[in-house]
Amino acid sequence: MMKVAAIVVTYNRKQLLKECLNAILNQTAEVERIIVINNASTDGTEDLFKKNGEFASNKIKCVNMDCNTGGSGGFYEGFKRASKVDADWFWIMDDDTIPNYDCLEKLLEANDSLNKNEDYNTGKRKISFFASSIFGQKGEFMNVPNVDLAQSKNGYQSYYEHLGDNMIRIKDATFVSLLINSKAVYKCGLPCRDYFIWGDDGEYTLRLTKYYGEAYLVGCSVAIHKRIGAKKLEISNFEDINRIKMYHYYIRNNIINTIFYNKDKNLFITFSKKIIQATCSIKYIFTKHGLLKILIIWKGTVEGFLQYNKFKKYILEQIKII
């Protein structure tokens, strides 16, 4: 029987965290261990896990961070802790992810289905992770992964190879109900802690599919993402000044990911495209917080190119190919 350890990262969303944990505890498939990374919340989150707290349990371990390390720092710490636990799979999510009661069971069934295939049984093909289908509170499509469009031997794309088992092959995903093979983590290391927020999951899942094995979106495994605003992460959709200020992480991290995982593309072309995009940010000048948005876009663009080598070194050290 496969052993699963869940990793949940939380910051100042006590009520959502309670809903998330109850959903995990009430799954039709058992979770052996739950590791909660509390990113220095100030809303009483840590009280939930104290001796007489609502979630005081030997099954649940709450790690209280000294400061808010962002989603990436939280998952870094979560993977680090989970790697010391006896588990075959790590089921990861933020505190605003509410998995359906059979979400985990469907992910595990997907693995069982693939293991009937001789290629997976013999180790010729490996699985990095399975991703749930994610919807917003009103049924909106959210956290949609990129399909793996790699060509098969005969030149056609084969991403729908296992469509009959409710799966399509993907190349990356977000940290919203992912079931990750612990062997893939041991091979590929830990996420980029210093990404802080946005893009860390894209980098890490690309790392898993590139350096370990395949990944699949499981159609019948469903989770609800209760993120405020179900729209795509674009600065034009932001009105909260604090989220606008953080957007430079999104731009920086995605520039780094683009360069590292598209080595066959011309760096000059990538640089030119990003500079053009930054220049086009002038269109925000007459919008709410327009000047700040422009400055943030340029800040993220400059950081992406200046900090690329630092993050490249870290990623290569994690997959131990230096």
TrEMBL record:
Taxonomic source organism: Holdemania filiformis DSM 12042
EC number, as in UniProt: 2.4.-.-
Enzyme class label: transferase
UniProt xrefs under Pfam families: Glycos_transf_2
CDD domains per the UniProt record, alphabetical: GT_2_like_b
Record protein name field: Glycosyltransferase, group 2 family protein
UniProt keywords, alphabetically: Glycosyltransferase, Transferase
Every Glycosyltransferase 2-like domain range: 7-112
Lineage: Bacteria, Bacillati, Bacillota, Erysipelotrichia, Erysipelotrichales
SUPFAM superfamilies, sorted: Nucleotide-diphospho-sugar transferases
Molecular function, one GO term: glycosyltransferase activity
